[in-house]
Amino acid sequence: MxxxxxxxxxxxxFVAIYFLPAILADRTKRxxxxxxxxxxxxxxxxxxxxxxxxxxxxxxxxxxxxGRIVRNxxxxxxxxxxxxxxxRAHERAARGGRFDLAHGSEGNRKS
Length: 111
Prior knowledge:
The longest helix has 33 residues, at 63-95. The relative contact order is 0.07. The chain is mainly alpha-helical. Helix 2 packs antiparallel against helix 3, helix 2 packs parallel to helix 4 and helix 3 (33-43) packs antiparallel against helix 4 (47-58). The chain is 73% helix and 5% strand. It has a two-stranded antiparallel ribbon with strand order 1-2. The radius of gyration is 27 Å and the shape is elongated. The chain folds into two domains: 2-58, no CATH class; 63-99.
């Protein structure tokens, strides 16, 4: 029983060390954790593959790539806001309501 427990503990330790690059990438909130985990799974059995995955886990994202990500997120957010405003305007127009710019209120006046 003790031998089996030690074997299970050793196997768990080996698996934890084998996937250490993927675990560290997840803990440091890397954007490419899944890709790194797959790389680690497929090539981690080689020493060079495991060291490359470990380096990748610690290597920060480039400033240029992060800037692109931020710009894309801002663009998407602006587009969602514009789409929501346009959809709301279409809903109001379909209800027949008009917006009185002088008083800042909505009214159903016929002109």
